[in-house]
Write a structure and sequence with these properties.
Blueprint: H1 3-7, H2 14-22, H3 25-31, H4 62-69, E1 78-83, H5 92-101, E2 111-118, E3 130-137, H6 146-150, E4 156-158, E5 164-166, H7 176-180, E6 187-188, E7 195-196, H8 202-205, H9 212-216, E8 222-226, H10 233-243, E9 247-248, E10 260-263, H11 270-273, H12 307-318
Parallel strand pairs: 1-10
Antiparallel strand pairs: 1-8, 2-3, 4-5, 6-7, 9-10
Length: 331
């Protein structure tokens, strides 16, 4: 099956669907079709505080993204429940994702966040003084997706079941989507210079299979499915956890209405590990696996740039600047 071509499927119209199938990301990678970036933003300069503000300054006019924010009328509503109490950090989901989507070394569509913190008072001493938390993270597939609003070339759109996808025939590497994402779930491919993110393994879901990460998880910590179907596993699990008051969302104050919920308990509250998750302008990065990143007092990391990005920045800095001739010179 031509899985990469289907990866781009799910655009709101048949015309978009046909165009999305004509060029896949693997072809761009193999051909080394690096597109010139139209602009970039400094994560440090655009750092957010904790007030819950979005990068609305990056949003395009509403008429530019209104249609792309609408999912196809297929009666489906895909969503996730992540049980952080079950995850033991084996990284099988990440490996499966990389293999399924040809994700290069040093880049990640999904990543497991590690966090270690003292257990709250009253928790059994026999369980240990510290709680080690592993959280499988990926795109939240927001109802009100800021990446779609920020995309200037019209590549980000809602696909089947409301899945947020990238049309690689349109993406030109502006990176505005990455700067606007409150969850650090988008990276810019260093070769194709295009945005890459989780697409719910559309090529698998469309033929009745689960996303690669879900099918691989040995602890069944990941649940994915149609929230519009009350009999689906994800719907039943979500309803059960909501009734018990054990379901939370990440950075809900952003107002993006993410379609990923996290099962919690006394030691696994979202607020406990939320600061370890990348923010606007950041992406998942290798340093997250360092044991020094696990500790509670470890400050939120700053994204480590890809070597290709470092080289590109150095090349730009080395280019001679054009100087305007002074009055009387060159005559």
């Amino acid at each position: 099956m031509e899985r990469d071509a289907v990866e781009q499927d799910g655009a709101p119209s048949g015309e978009h669907r046909a165009a999305a199938r004509s060029t896949d990301r693997r072809t761009l990678l193999k051909g080394g079709a690096a597109l010139a970036a139209a602009g970039g933003f400094s994560a440090e300069a655009l750092a957010q505080d904790d007030a819950g503000r979005l990068r609305t300054d990056l949003f395009m006019p509403k008429e530019h993204w209104r249609e792309r924010m609408q999912a196809p009328d297929d009666g489906k509503r895909y969503g996730w429940v992540v049980d952080t109490r079950r995850c033991f950090g084996c990284h099988a989901c990440e490996v499966a994702c990389k293999a399924e989507n040809d994700v290069p070394l040093g880049s990640y569509i999904r990543q497991t966040i590690y966090h270690e913190a003292p257990r709250p008072a009253g928790i059994a001493v026999g369980a240990g003084q510290y709680a080690r938390i592993m959280v499988p993270m990926a795109c939240q597939h927001c109802e009100d997706a800021p990446c779609i609003k920020a995309c200037p070339c019209g590549a980000l759109h809602k696909g089947a079941g409301g899945t947020v996808q990238v049309n690689y025939d349109k993406c030109s590497g502006h990176a505005s989507c990455k700067e606007a994402c409150p969850y650090g779930a988008i990276y810019i491919d260093p070769v194709a210079n295009q945005a890459v993110k989780c697409h719910n393994c559309t090529h698998r879901v469309d033929v009745g299979m689960e996303p690669a990460c879900v099918a691989t998880c040995p602890s069944e910590a990941l649940a994915f499915g149609d929230l519009a179907d009350e009999t689906s596993r994800v719907s039943r699990l979500k309803a059960e956890l909501e009734a018990e008051g054990k379901l939370e969302r990440l950075r809900a104050e952003k107002g993006t209405e993410p379609r990923m919920w996290f099962a919690v308990d006394e030691t696994h509250r979202v607020e406990t590990w939320a600061d370890k998750v990348p923010r606007e302008g950041e992406s998942y990065h290798p340093d997250a696996y360092s044991v020094y990143e696990w500790r509670e007092e470890t400050p939120p990391h700053t994204r480590v740039p890809h070597p290709a990005e470092v080289q590109r920045a150095a090349d730009l800095a080395a280019q001679p600047t054009t100087q305007t001739p002074q009055s009387g010179e060159g005559r």
